[in-house]
Design brief:
Number of helices: 7
Shape: elongated
Strand content: under 5%
Number of strands: 0
């Protein structure tokens, strides 16, 4: 069967998405950040880790649901983005409450952080370097990363919307295939 006659099209593949990879890195580094700078017994520690985790998990869940529900995929991708926005606010609060500087997005530090985050050479080096950075640098680096992930999710949602408008959803495919099958009988 080709994709035109397949009721449930190929789906998943989320691990290859840059949005997923960025969100997963944000989750991993949030765990490191929280373990270094936030009391492990505090509600903030748990909430930040869970918001980061939710970003990753909702991308995966939406991608796997996409075979039968573009609506669910779009909704869960939006939930992932909202979870990362919550996490972003936590990092901004961290800086503000400690009197630390929030970098301008075009500051030399932010540009260096984005370069650091996009380096594909050795991801374990990024984690090691992150573990040694100051709380201000770590929080601002996370803000850069979350903004990147959020931007990628926004673009992904736009693409999902276009694809839905062009191709329709599962219910339409079911109806069209059933009608086609009956017309052949």
């Amino acid at each position: 069967m080709d994709n035109d006659t397949t009721l449930i099209p190929p789906h998943g593949g989320y691990r290859k998405l840059r949005s997923f990879q960025s969100a997963q890195l944000a989750y991993d580094l949030t765990v490191v950040f929280c373990n270094r700078f936030i009391d492990k017994r505090s509600r903030t520690h748990d909430q930040m880790v869970q918001a980061a985790r939710s970003g990753v998990q909702n991308i995966a869940e939406g991608s796997m649901a996409s075979g039968t529900s573009k609506k669910t995929e779009l909704k869960l991708t939006g939930v992932a983005r909202a979870s990362l926005e919550e996490l972003l606010l936590d990092y901004e609060d961290f800086l503000r409450q400690r009197g630390l500087r929030l970098w301008d997005k075009n500051s030399p530090e932010a540009l260096e952080a984005r370069k650091f985050l996009s380096d594909e050479s050795d991801k374990s080096d990024r984690s090691d370097s992150f573990k040694k950075s100051s709380e201000e640098t770590a929080a601002n680096t996370m803000i850069c990363l979350i903004n990147q992930a959020s931007y990628l999710l926004h673009r992904q949602m736009q693409s999902l919307e276009r694809k839905f408008l062009e191709e329709g959803g599962f219910t339409e495919r079911m109806y069209n295939q059933r009608r086609s099958w009956r017309d052949k009988s």
